[in-house]
Amino acid sequence: MASNLQSSLRLRIPLRQLFLHTSVSSRTRFAPAALQSPLLTRCSPQASAPRRALHVGAATGHQSLPSSPPERLPFSRVTEEDLAFFRSILPGRTITDPDLLESSNVDWLKSVRGSAEVLLRPQTTEEVSQVLSYCNRRSLAVNPQGGNTGLVGGSVPVYDEIILSTALMNKIHSFDNVSGIVTCQAGCILENLSLYLEDRDYIMPLDLGAKGSCQIGGNVATNAGGLRLLRYGSLHGTVLGLEVVLADGRVLDCLSTLRKDNTGYDLKQLFIGSEGTLGVITAVSVLCPRKPKSVNVVFLGCETFQQLLKTFHLCRSMLGEILSAFEFLDSECVRLLNTHLRLSNPISDCPFYIVIETSGSDPTHDSEKLHNFLEEAMASAFVLDGTVATEDSKIKALWSMRERVTEALTHDGFTYKYDISLPVERIYQLVTDMREHLGDRAKSVVGYGHVGDGNLHLNITSPEKNPELLAAIEPFVYEWTSRFQGSISAEHGLGLKKRNYIHYSKSSQAVALMGSIKTMLDPKGILNPYKTLPDNLK
Known about the structure:
This protein starts with a helix and ends in a 17-residue tail after the last helix. 35% of the residues lie in helices and 18% in strands. Strand 15 (444-450) and strand 16 form a beta hairpin. It has 538 residues and is of the alpha+beta class. A 7-stranded antiparallel beta sheet has the order 13-10-12-11-15-16-14, sandwiched between helices. The longest helix is centred in the C-terminal third of the chain and has 17 residues, at 363-379. Helix 2 (15-21) packs antiparallel against helix 14.
């Protein structure tokens, strides 16, 4: 049967054979992997016009694009007396050397550059509390920073804000081997947490391409999604507790390890996804799943996006509880991977590719389910080619085809990145419409992302930064997304770049309430200014 299916679907290597032998195709060669008051107040009750009118109002206040930085707010500037105080509480951890500050002043994409002159590296919650209490009294703006892997300019200063790094807050406080709950400081690197848990037969519910650099506090502050959201849900569900230092230095202890606690408002949810604008997260407790005993990764090729969606529907139906990821990338992504990173396509050339991961507790059961799914997908002519891996090294190689797309894009020129969520059937239509809209003005227009949760990563490159191209992309991309009831930020946040586009996804009442919460928790507006909320919020 396998050979007949192979012939009818032009599979050069039968998926069934690959699965049974737990090896990757022998022909595959994988590579090693405007000046304003800082006080924010409630929007007027009349602010109930449609999103379009509200957004235009936000844009017309600027001579440049809404994503451009506003004028510096009237915060105090750092003095020698301030430095003396910081050095007294953080000896050897108050950094003023411009060379050492350079990497913290520039975002990962090298698209936003601040001019901070001070970098503070506390090790404890008490030290963070002392720093913020002092900065609040002095009206000194603070930029909280984790691993600085953000993509919307939210993790670096806009002007001379003091950088408050959590990098040295990297201790794991406790792990409960029965409940699977880990409690740690905010500066723990995601990959290090993952390795710690794997040694104890557990895993993090979150997996990101930037796991080697990003920190759990930053993940929580941005409500990062990642590759496992389909299986384990968002951080709003897996984060059980937080410890947060507020703008005035008060420590909010909500560091619960209880899965059920219905006493009053669930305050921690305010800070998940708040991008450091409401408080500085210093510790987290996370519910972690058991480490699966059986993991398989499948790399498939499809002729059309509709076939890809049919494969997804079949996959959810037949794999059910063992399905842990369903990712896609287009042929342009694969071209960039090969051109810039020398990653070879492990299957024949196809317009669309899928990465499916299964994870479970019974290898035999999982193998049977996966085998049945693959046979049905081939018999239904949903897929053209594919390969399967169960060995760790080959699993990593297949995953690199998805996880390293961002890296490949950095070598293709200046990249304009858009993190959109849409109804699943609309995901790729935005890519094709953007290509038609831009024509030859862009070097590359690619699409990839998480089909399982309707998250598209739309990336557009040009040889160099091009204001005319950006003006063609924005607000077109946001108007398109709003027309189909999508979100302009699925998992990256708003940061500096998208703050003035928030009305495309949120009502004026919702934005006004956000401003009221900000005013209540940070009345002087010192925490991560110029980010998340629109400039015209009154």
